[in-house]
């Protein structure tokens, strides 16, 4: 299981989660070249250690444990993984 970033992140891309993540598995960061064009931020499902530290810091409540991801946003699981070629 991994955490997933969903629809509320689109056009927000706050990156508080990036700073909170202990294993640096949320990208793109603000200083990465594709940050400006990315639709949202993404969690690497292989590197994520399921700590949950990113969830409370997100100002738009865009991050969910896989089991808590609303059904209407289920496609974001694949979107997050695809960013990393998973
Ligand atoms: Fe990073 Fe933990 Fe969030 Fe996974 S659950 S993305 S390891 S802060």
Can you describe what's shown?
The model has no long low-confidence stretch (mean pLDDT 97). The chain has 86 residues and is α+β, with helices and mostly antiparallel strands. The strands form 2 sheets. The chain has a two-stranded antiparallel sheet. The protein has a two-stranded antiparallel sheet with strand order 2-3. The chain has 2 helices and 4 strands, in the order βαβββα. It has a single domain, classed as Alpha-Beta Plaits, CATH 3.30.70. Helix content is 16%, strand content 12%. The site of iron/sulfur cluster has 14 residues, from loops.
Q: How would a textbook summarize the main sheet? A: 2 strands, antiparallel
Task: Determine and state the CATH class.
Answer: Alpha Beta
- Tally of separate helices: 2
What is the CA–CA distance across the termini? 13 Å
Helical proportion? 10-25%
> How would you spell out the order of helices and strands?
EHEEEH
Q: How large a portion of the residues is in β-strands, by DSSP E?
A: 5-15%
The small-molecule ligands in this entry are: iron/sulfur cluster
> What Rg, in angstroms, do the CA atoms define?
11 Å
Number of strands: 4
- CATH architecture classification name: 2-Layer Sandwich
- Counted up, domains total 1
Write a concise synopsis of the structure shown.
This protein has 86 residues and is an alpha+beta fold. The chain has helices spanning 16-20, 75-83; strands at 3-5, 26-27, 42-43, 63-65. It is globular, with a radius of gyration of 11 Å.
